[in-house]
């Protein structure tokens, strides 16, 4: 039994937010039934996106709706509020929130009071002041971006197939990915695989006509899988005629021309930006302590350092790594730690409410797996290095075991099975981005301009 009635506010509906709320539903089930505990989760979207599946969703191996987990269905004991936290005054235990109804009501932002705060807003793309980046590039952090990129790649193949202008054709078939981490390498590998397959259905587009370019500022890619596997990945990508450029930066993509620091210039209609992330801006709008990189200073028990009744984990938190040999090291901001931290976080909040001792988060990093396309991958797990089909299979098994709910596991497994029995789908549904365009045109109005069909528009 908890000491007194507690209102728990969870900011963020990603890995940490969802799994912490799930853990609290399990651990505080009697208290929730008696009304002694109230859990409110604020999220900008009504679902959690399982980001490791985004590359496969972009390639068409998984349906977009199976990459996300609906919060209301899974968190049936929580109050789900779709909105955005604007600021937090922890000294007063209040959070300022704008919701979908805020503008309609005209009453201003809503003030939410709480007793326990869980900050898990995740991270946002780290965009640099590169000319043309905001106008022409696309990120790869959301399911909307993944599906939009799939539609875009297929549409570029359609443009290349139908144009008589060699310059337009060359730009349409040039795809530049910036960032050699998981997101960039896996997205590039899966989409190149898909486009190579799709080319067989175009009478005048061959796989060798397409240029796939990976730009990485450091001297290696996929550092999480180790130097040897990183070099193997570069070799495998180059064997697929993918141009991997290490120690190279994107200097500009203005006017649809990717200009690299090594002097190369590529006219292109596709620039995918996956060059890192930064802490969510909401962290700077709180009165909680941050480190030099803008993340919350935390203790091994996942409390915010020096503050009571405040908790954090995942990308937003700088959590000490108690398993590291050297002092001062922090846990990596990745899904492997986030999932495990969420369980400890939920347990510790329950312990705190019941006046019990807190647990210390301790997890030794076991390794990483990455997919490079269908039946291709790399892995470095428990000191063992795998490549090719075994690594790809391990990648699928691991992430299938980690995606939330049995419902999602079954649906993803069914889709993988069907994908193995039938041919790939190569349909572009880009018109979904402008669903009212056809009706507005029929009604005599002016439909919104599709930037993909505008030679001066953004990609």
Automatic annotation (TrEMBL):
Signal peptide from the UniProt entry = none
Q: What class of enzyme is it?
A: oxidoreductase
Q: Which family does it belong to?
A: Belongs to the NADH dehydrogenase family.
Name of the protein in question = NAD(P)/FAD-dependent oxidoreductase
Keyword DNA repair found: no
EC annotation from Swiss-Prot or TrEMBL: 1.6.5.-
Source taxonomy lineage? Bacteria, Bacillati, Actinomycetota, Actinomycetes, Kitasatosporales
Q: Which domain of life is it from?
A: Bacteria
Tell me which stretches of the chain form a coiled coil.
none
Q: Which InterPro entries match?
A: FAD/NAD-bd_sf, FAD/NAD-binding_dom, NDH-2
**Keywords carried by this UniProt record:** FAD, Flavoprotein, NAD, Oxidoreductase
What is the organism of origin for this protein? Streptomyces lutosisoli
Domain named FAD/NAD(P)-binding: which ranges?
Answer: 7-341
Q: Give one Pfam family.
A: Pyr_redox_2
Q: Which GO molecular function terms does the record list? A: oxidoreductase activity
């Amino acid at each position: 039994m908890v000491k007194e009635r507690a209102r728990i506010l969870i900011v963020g509906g990603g890995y940490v937010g969802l799994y912490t709320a799930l853990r609290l539903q399990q651990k505080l089930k009697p208290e929730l039934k008696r009304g002694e505990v109230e859990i409110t989760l604020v999220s900008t979207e009504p679902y959690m996106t399982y980001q490791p599946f985004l590359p496969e969703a972009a390639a068409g191996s998984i349906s977009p709706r199976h990459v996300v987990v609906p919060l209301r269905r899974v968190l049936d004991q929580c109050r789900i509020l779709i909105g955005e936290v604007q600021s937090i005054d922890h000294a007063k235990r209040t959070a300022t929130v704008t919701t979908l109804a805020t503008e309609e009501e005209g009453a201003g932002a809503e003030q939410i009071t709480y007793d326990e705060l869980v900050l898990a807003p995740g991270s946002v793309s780290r965009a640099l002041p590169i000319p043309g980046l905001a106008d022409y590039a696309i990120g790869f952090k959301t399911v909307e971006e993944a599906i939009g990129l799939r539609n875009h790649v297929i549409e570029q193949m359609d443009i290349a197939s139908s144009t008589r202008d060699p310059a337009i054709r060359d730009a349409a078939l040039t795809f530049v990915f910036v960032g050699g981490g998981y997101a960039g390498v896996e997205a590039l590998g899966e989409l190149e695989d898909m486009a190579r397959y799709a080319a067989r259905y175009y009478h005048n587009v061959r796989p060798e006509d397409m240029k796939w370019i990976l730009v990485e500022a450091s001297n290696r890619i996929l550092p999480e899988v180790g130097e040897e596997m990183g070099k193997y990945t570069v070799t495998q990508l180059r064997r697929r005629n993918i141009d991997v450029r290490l120690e190279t930066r994107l200097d500009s993509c203005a006017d649809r021309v990717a200009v690299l620091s090594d002097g190369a210039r590529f006219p292109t209609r596709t620039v995918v930006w996956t060059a890192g992330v930064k802490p969510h801006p909401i962290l700077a709008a709180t009165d909680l302590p941050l480190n030099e990189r803008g993340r919350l200073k935390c203790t091994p028990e996942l409390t915010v350092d020096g503050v009571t009744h405040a908790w954090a984990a995942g990308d937003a938190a700088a959590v000490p790594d108690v398993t590291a040999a050297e002092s001062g090291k922090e846990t990596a901001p990745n899904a492997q730690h986030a999932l495990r931290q969420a369980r400890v976080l939920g347990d510790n909040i329950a312990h705190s409410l019941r006046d019990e001792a807190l647990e210390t988060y301790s997890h030794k990093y076991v390794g990483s797996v990455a997919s490079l396309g269908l039946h291709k991958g790399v892995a470095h797990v428990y000191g063992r290095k795998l490549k090719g089909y075994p690594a790809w299979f391990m990648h699928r098994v691991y992430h299938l075991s980690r995606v939330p709910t049995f419902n999602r596991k079954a649906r993803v497994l069914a889709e993988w099975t069907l994908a193995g029995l039938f041919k790939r789908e190569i349909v572009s549904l880009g018109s979904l981005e402008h669903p009212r365009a056809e009706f507005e045109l029929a009604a005599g109005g002016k439909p919104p301009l599709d930037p993909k069909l505008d030679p001066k528009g953004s990609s």
